[in-house]
Amino acid sequence: MFESSNTEPKCVKIRYDFVARNSNELTVQKGEVLEVLNSEKQWWLVRNRSTHTGYVPCNVLEELKAGETQYNRAEFFNSQAVNPYKATSPPALINHTENVEMNKSSRDKDNRTQQKEVNDELLKRITDSKAQPPARNFRVEHPIRTLPITYDSQPFEICGWLNAKGFSRPVVDCLGILTGAQLFSLSKDELKAVCGDEGSRVYSQISVQKAQIERSYGNSELEEIMKRRQREVDAFTWD
């Protein structure tokens, strides 16, 4: 803290910018030279070259060294005198970091306002354009639904089922003449002998169909159907 003198007023130079928050404080800029009117507390009462007075925190002040030529003391002290006690009482001391945060908050608010204006303009252009949605250049493939085969299925139904499952033409021609009961009666080895490499896949698909039938009918009813169809197959073979 600087010692007061009755012969020559003290002057200080501003180290950091400070923005006043109320009428008791004084806004100053870095490098500005001020006259000290009261330095008894943490906030000093100072006067600038425009004869404006107010409180500034002492931690943003720096003593003006003797011999500095960038400031004309005579010109400053010959300016119109003002009441050094214009400000009523010093506010609570704030540090330089708080002052920087206040300035940053003000800049952030301006940036948000500008961004909102840009967003509003963009939304208006999109709304006014009334652009139609782009044409769809792709085709949606819908899966082909196939009816399950049963013991009562006719040869044309067996043929359609085999085609829907993607079996080759020779397999369709070979098995497409059978009824559902006849197809279900074939074993895996018999299918492999007739259909070659596709025999295992045919047997797998037939097993899936049998499982669906078992879920639809009770075991006793299914056994009765299988016995009846087996008798029909046997009768067809003897004929």
UniProtKB/TrEMBL annotation:
Keywords: Cytoplasm, Phosphoprotein, SH3 domain
One protein family per Pfam: SH3_1
Domain SH3: 7-66
Region feature (Disordered): 96-116
Protein known as: SH3 domain-containing protein
GO cellular component terms, A-Z: cytoplasm; ruffle membrane; vesicle
Organism: Ameiurus melas (Black bullhead)
Family note: Belongs to the EPS8 family.
GO BP annotations listed: positive regulation of ruffle assembly; regulation of Rho protein signal transduction; Rho protein signal transduction
Subcellular location: Cytoplasm
Electron transport found in the keyword field: no
Stretch forming the signal peptide: none
GO molecular function: actin binding
Chief location: cytoplasm
Biased composition (Basic and acidic residues): 98-116
